[in-house]
Structure prediction request, 346 residues.
Amino acid sequence: MARPHMDETMDFLTSIVGEEVRSIDEDFGNGYVRLAVSEAQRRQAQHDIRNVESVVIELLRNARDAQARTVYVATAVRGTCRTLVVLDDGVGIEPSMWERIFEPRVTSKLETLQVDEWGVHGRGMALYSVRANALSAQVAKSIREQGSSINVEIDTSYLEERADQSTWPTLICGDDHEKVRGPHNIIRTIVEFVLEHPDVDVFYGSIPVIAATIHHSDEHEWIGSALSRADEAIELQEVAKDVGLVISERTAYRIISKQIAPVQSINIQLHDTYEERQDVVGITEADLDRDARGLKMSPDDLDAFRLDLEKAFDKLGEKYYLDLVDRVEVRQSGETIRARFNFDKQ
Prediction:
């Protein structure tokens, strides 16, 4: 008797607020149910995307599957909001599909499926999962055969990321393959992708640095070409915004005047002096159990302190035109707390 009553209730709710509220298709009793398709998709999205680094790898795989040969990953952080802008020179997206690609089960790979070390790709769930876990995700610009730009805003208090976003991983060359060690942050995610796909050039940096890199490049015709051709600050600011790279007019002027240097691709950096590279020197992980008499801080307290520092930096940044590039690093060792701020001038 319970089943007809449940059906009537669910049908009534569905008629009022729509199909999305219906999370159960069938109740078998004793706690067993058959989930509705929409609820199963929602739960899969939460499983597929577990942190900010998961978003980065999905966007990189998306660019790879779009036959991109050059990818730019630009990032900015303000408080608990992480901005990611990924530009590629792939096949592009029709305007009519700009919203639909974020719907579940929508894919351009009807007869092909990619299986790599990150799992299966081509189910039509990657971009849906990204949007489902982000504050927003949208196509900033795309032109057929000239590439795409996707902009994602993430609340890192909901979708976590590694606190240490500045340390570069260490590359260890073995007999048969290369291993990567270090924090599982954004840069390590990109390095691992490049090692698997050396034919794709990937550039990574802050939004001003990536805008400068594209501006000073001599690329073929693609969605970023207007940045290369801009010769006035106001024009550069406008065309950068058009592809999702929001910069101030002052920053645009500094790019035009070459005060902001372009960055080399990760591929080039890997083949230079990468084995010896370590951007954070002299800061080591705190060993809270080494000395019972020493100061002990919980990771949650250190994270809360980091957020306070970022908010304080925002006030300083507004006065001196500074933008944080990465999360503030806070490390505690013995009786010492160290904070590291990585920033760009606007």
